[in-house]
Amino acid sequence: GKSFTQNSYLTRHRLTHTGEKPFTCSDCGKSFSQISGLTQPHFPHTGEKAFTCPDCGKSFTQNSYLTRHRLTHTGEKPFTCPDCGKSFGMISTLRIHYRIHTREKLFPCA
User: Which GO terms describe its cellular component (predicted)?
Assistant: First the structure.
């Protein structure tokens, strides 16, 4: 089975086996497998996409999504692996990549 670097990743993964969605929005009744579904706006509550890319006009519901999107225009990859020098646009992608070097998988799924 799969192994994970953090226990929380294993817990989240186990929900894929059960299909459980324990987090329910009190406004619309939509359920989510992760609490982030509740803490991040899940439109169409308002449908508003207030953050617009000045380069292409694409709009986003969160400023962080716009910031990540803008890297597609600049090609910037500000996160560099200290072991091999490979660069990434998002820190989360670097963290996933770095496991190649550490071979760290501490939490197996039974």
Answer: nucleus
Instruction: Give the pTM.
Output: 0.45
Rounded distance between C-alpha atoms, residue 63 and residue 12, angstroms: 25
The domain covering 3-108 belongs, at the CATH homologous superfamily level, to Classic Zinc Finger (3.30.160.60)
Q: Angle CA(90)–CA(41)–CA(92) in degrees, nearest 5?
A: 15
The DSSP symbol for 85 reads: -
